[in-house]
Amino acid sequence: xxxxxxxxAELVNPAxxxxxxxxxxxxxxxxITLVFGTSERGVDIPQVTxxxxxNVPGIFIAGELGGMGLIRNAVEQxxxxxxxxxxxxxxxxxxxxxxxxxxAGPAGLSATLAATEKKLRFVTLEQDSxxxxxxxxPRGKLVMTAPVKLPLVGTVKFREISKxxxxxxxxxxxxxxxxxxNFKERLETVTQENAGFTVRTSKGSYTSKCILLAIxxxxxxxxxxxxxxxxxxxxxxxxxxxxxRKQKVLVVGGGDAALExxxxxxxxxxxxxxxxxxxxxxxxxxxxxxxxxxxxQKTGSLNxxxxxxxxxxxxxxxxVDQQGNLIDLHNDAVIVCAGGILPTPFLKGIGIEIExxxxxx
Length: 361
Description:
Blueprint: E1 2-5, E2 8-11, H1 22-26, E3 43-46, E4 59-61, H2 71-88, E5 97-102, H3 106-117, E6 122-126, E7 148-150, E8 154-156, H4 163-177, E9 182-183, E10 187-193, E11 196-201, E12 205-213, E13 220-221, E14 234-235, E15 248-252, H5 256-266, E16 272-276, H6 287-298, E17 302-305, E18 308-314, E19 317-322, E20 325-330, E21 333-336, E22 340-341, H7 344-349, E23 354-357
Helix pairs in contact: 2-3, 5-6
């Protein structure tokens, strides 16, 4: 990804380094900065300190909510955030909880293990099921995690593992360690009081010195805002490619989720798949996925429409604008993979400062 131009290191293939910020931490000269968003579409990022604490003392953020993707990053941040919390959030016995952990995805699970290891008084809440965003990945998806350290467990040396195998491993960790997670309990409000917080949920309330938010960013899918988007044929994530066998499908988006959805359906027999993306390059996707898309495009198995935007979704067809040229696609289903919307109103409502970054550090 780096090349030497006129005796100076230059970023010559930036798409190769999309996905994590390990290089920033590893650089001994502190010469690397991270960029979020693009000049056209900003990314909302909560402001946190190196200890994962927000501008609201006692509220911490770890994982994808803080702007960093990848399972390994989330696991590591959950563990590190609990290190910080253990130093500042211990309370007198029976006074209240030390911390409420919200979310049981990779960051929340890691934080729960770390809180148990450090003998903190805590509760972990999860509005859905184990795994967070991972649980909603398509069936059989390779999550391509890397070796990572889990509290109470040790170093887990995964390289490539499927969603199902990873969830099964996590369920085994819960059974082995005996940690408790309150599933199907949704966070509703947070009130600051008496140098701590009252956390109200769909099932009750808790008082705690601190809160760790590990809730991810994809709870509310980003929509296209076009006529016909409320059609039953439109969905915002792929569950099982097999359900689209023998159908005409349009996938919208340019990240890994969109490319992987298009690839998995295009590889089925008797399907017609189009992939629409507003930019002229898949700069946010992994090279492996970009290569597969290119191969399928060459064989005619995948119709790729770069620099295009969906204009209208109708019964049986979709109108796409590609640089002023209107294309009418016969269509049975539309899968929109345009990312998720940060729960900004909730975060701002409890006082957390949010910055929208437009292709800046």
